[in-house]
């Protein structure tokens, strides 16, 4: 318990907008997050929220677990509202990433596109798919109404601060597993 509390406090101090189990999300989204089961001991789990943002993109919840405890829940997007029903295993569709297990890189790489932000955290499907170059990043256009809200299939966090907190968690605890369960 002491180790978990210290870890939570440490991560909470890194961003004043984040507290354990509640990451700047609505009460309705938070309740949905608490009602869903735990997929693993230390991992990330992407699930649907049943809601959309102001730009009509579905909001997915990225739940972060450490030692079986839910530490954070981040609002994210994947794809865009008009790509949600495209083939998620076919390259070039810009659909959300396919359901399944992914290995998480232990470090970020520089973002190569403006819509990816400065840093990109690669994830690697542990199953056969036509998709590649998938990852987690900050979506600089989240809810901005500039026609760029959403991603080409990656997981896009709603703020730079949330992404920084997630990267710090990954660099500290080195989770190996991302479970995508959005369909």
Describe this structure in words.
Strand 5 (109-110) and strand 6 (119-125) form a beta hairpin. It is built from three helices and nine strands. It has helices at 2-14, 27-35, 160-173, and strands at residues 43-52, 58-66, 69-77, 100-104, 109-110, 119-125, 135-138, 155-157, 177-180. An eight-stranded mixed β-barrel has the order 1-2-3-8-7-6-4-9. By secondary structure, the chain is an alpha+beta fold. The protein has one domain (2-180): L,D-transpeptidase catalytic domain-like (Beta Barrel).
Helix and strand layout, with pairings?
Elements: H1 2-14, H2 27-35, E1 43-52, E2 58-66, E3 69-77, E4 100-104, E5 109-110, E6 119-125, E7 135-138, E8 155-157, H3 160-173, E9 177-180
Parallel strand pairs: 1-9, 7-8
Antiparallel strand pairs: 1-2, 2-3, 3-8, 4-6, 4-9, 5-6, 6-7
Terminal Cα span: 34 Å
Largest sheet: 8 strands, mixed, barrel
Oligomer: single chain
Q: Proportion of β residues?
A: 25-35%
Over the alpha carbons, how many angstroms does the gyration radius reach? 15 Å
Q: Spatial order of the strands in the main sheet?
A: 1-2-3-8-7-6-4-9
CATH class: Mainly Beta
Instruction: Count every beta strand, where a strand is a DSSP E run of 2 or more residues.
Output: 9
* Helix/sheet category: alpha+beta
Order of helices and strands: HHEEEEEEEEHE
């Amino acid at each position: 318990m002491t180790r978990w509390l210290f870890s939570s406090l440490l991560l909470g101090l890194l961003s004043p907008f984040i507290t354990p189990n509640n990451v700047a999300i609505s009460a309705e989204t938070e309740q949905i997050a608490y009602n869903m089961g735990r997929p693993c001991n230390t991992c990330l789990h992407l699930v649907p929220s049943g809601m959309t943002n102001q730009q009509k993109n579905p909001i997915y919840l990225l739940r972060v677990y450490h030692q079986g405890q839910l530490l954070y829940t981040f609002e994210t997007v994947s794809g865009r509202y008009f790509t949600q029903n495209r083939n998620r295993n076919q390259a070039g569709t810009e659909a959300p990433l396919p359901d399944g297990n992914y290995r998480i890189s232990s470090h970020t790489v520089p973002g190569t596109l403006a819509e990816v932000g400065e840093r990109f955290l690669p994830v690697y499907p542990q199953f056969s798919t036509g998709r590649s170059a998938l990852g987690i990043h900050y979506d600089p256009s989240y809810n901005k109404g500039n026609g760029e809200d959403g991603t080409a299939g990656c997981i896009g966090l709603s703020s730079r601060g949330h992404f920084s907190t997630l990267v710090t968690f990954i660099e500290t605890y080195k989770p190996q597993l991302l479970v995508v369960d959005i369909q």
